[in-house]
Amino acid sequence: MNRQSCMYMLRDAREGIQRNIGAAAAAAVLIFVAVLIAGILLLGRFGVGDLMGYLESQVAMKLYVDPAADTKAIAAILQEKSFVQSVEIETKAQMLERLAGFFAGREHLLVSFQESQIPDAIRLELRDKTQIKLVAEQLQTMNGITKVVYPQEFAETILRWSAQLNKYGLGLLLGLGALAFGMVFIAMNLALYQRQQEIRVRLLLGANPWHVRGQFLFEGWLIGFVGSLLAAVAIYWLFSGMLLPLQKQFPLVFHFSQGLVYEMMGGMALAGSLLGLSASYASTRKLINHA
């Protein structure tokens, strides 16, 4: 395709979209929202994956001891159990020292922890990590133990929340995608009906139907590309404005890849473009052949 043909196509697409600016704008907005939700769900999966990886690395089980109980005596009893690999007593001061890195720049929050009544804890390393849930249930009934905390407990809760979010998010995404497809379809139908006479004349003069259809396919692609491109920019704004600061605050937990985000943005732009292109093709497939 030469430069003159490209300029003609761009001018014709601009004029066609301007004739139906309301329908085209509504379609672009719906594509923007649908693609944006898809991007947010993907970013959420990245964060959940990092958080799950961090929790799985923290294989120790923590037992909070009743202040009235003898922490050292309980630790000695646990050390004799066959399923225990190691036992470590963690005092309030030691726990605050471990948490100090998470309160960088927010020391006032750390002070509030220092002034609270935090019980001693016992950290257990099990010989068989797969039995951690069963062991936790048994230790919960032990005298002097007020609370048993282990990584899988948090992981199960996070996975449950993530599954619910993905379930409803996917349903909303599919609904918005269908609406966006329908709006592009309507916009292209309006453009076709407004330009029926022009299409007939071009076909009667021997124009290739695919060349005529290509103009409308380009308009549909352009609507999808603009909407998805704006969504990709919004996703990058969310990533740089929210997730990168989160990673800086919790470097041990989150490890977001900027290259992966760029790939995701490219995929979003491609998906929106294909959505607009497919809706335009569906709209023009019969009408141009009939013309």
Description:
Helix content is 74%, strand content 8%. With 291 residues, it is of the alpha+beta class. It has two domains: 3-55 and 155-290, no CATH class; 58-150, Alpha-Beta Plaits, CATH 3.30.70.3040. It has a four-stranded antiparallel sheet with strand order 2-3-1-4. The longest helix has 44 residues, at 151-194.
How would you summarize what this structure contains?
The protein has 291 residues and is α+β, with helices and mostly antiparallel strands. It has two domains: 3-55 and 155-290, no CATH class; 58-150, Alpha-Beta Plaits (2-Layer Sandwich). It has helices spanning 3-19, 21-57, 71-79, 92-99, 107-114, 132-139, 151-194, 196-204, 209-249, 258-290, and strands at residues 61-65, 84-90, 121-126, 145-149.
What kind of sheet is the major sheet? 4 strands, antiparallel
Number of helices: 10
- Which structural category fits the helices and strands? alpha+beta
Write down the overall mean pLDDT.
76
Total individual domains: 2
Strand percentage, roughly? Answer: 5-15%
C-alpha Rg, in Å? 30 Å
Structural key phrases:
four-stranded antiparallel β-sheet, 291 residues, 2 domains, alpha+beta, Alpha-Beta Plaits, single chain, rod-shaped
Write the layout of secondary structure elements.
Layout: H1 3-19, H2 21-57, E1 61-65, H3 71-79, E2 84-90, H4 92-99, H5 107-114, E3 121-126, H6 132-139, E4 145-149, H7 151-194, H8 196-204, H9 209-249, H10 258-290
Antiparallel strand pairs: 1-3, 1-4, 2-3
Helix pairs in contact: 1-9, 2-7, 2-9, 2-10, 7-9, 7-10, 9-10
